[in-house]
Amino acid sequence: MKTQSIVIGLIATVVILYFIWTKFKNQKHQTDTDTSKQSTELLPTQEKQNDKLVIVKNVSYTDLQTILTGFCNMYNKERYQARPRLTKITESEFAITFPFDIDFIIFCYFINYVHYPMDFDKTFYVTGWTTTKSGDNWITEKSANKKVMLFIPSDDTDHDNVYMTTIDSIGFKLGFAIGEEKQMLNEPKKKFSSPTIDILELTNLVHKDFK
Hints:
By secondary structure, the protein is α+β, with helices and mostly antiparallel strands. Helix content is 34%, strand content 20%. It contains 4 helices and 9 strands. It has a 9-stranded antiparallel beta sheet. The longest helix is centred in the first third of the chain and has 41 residues. The protein is globular and about 40 Å long. The chain starts with a helix and ends with a strand. It comes from Ferruginibacter yonginensis. Keywords: Membrane, Transmembrane, Transmembrane helix. This is Cell division protein ZipA.
């Protein structure tokens, strides 16, 4: 009788555990499905004209793909904030554009991230260009509505900022810490130079989009 009770108890335990496992599996499947559906609905499909351009040098295609994937995984969790498009110029030089546009503040984060990528023990040469707007984060009346160049100098030690030079040679340090977002410099950290690549020339070249 005692043995029979033990067997019945084991069978009941197995049935309960199977029921719990089945319920958990169904809930997880439903959650995965909903998340996929939400991401698809939020994915921007309408391209927006803009002149944001980033050039990365002395990097391999494989490494840059890893870097862009890491950035997108970090910034596109809740909503799509960046959809970079990667175009190969040479074996070690690449152009990155944003056909769906990107907020100026995220653009700054992007340049910093590509220069200081996570899980890499090295930095990369990164320069970005865009035209600012008066409503952009960190933009003042002295830098609004101007062509600007964004970069991180080789002697940077803060690791949480980007530097900006306007086309009329006004320099800024844009810090990511509160209170350090828009520091005007006595002189630019680097002289403004226009990109050697025209965004329009990239239109018909082979590229890869990230999300």
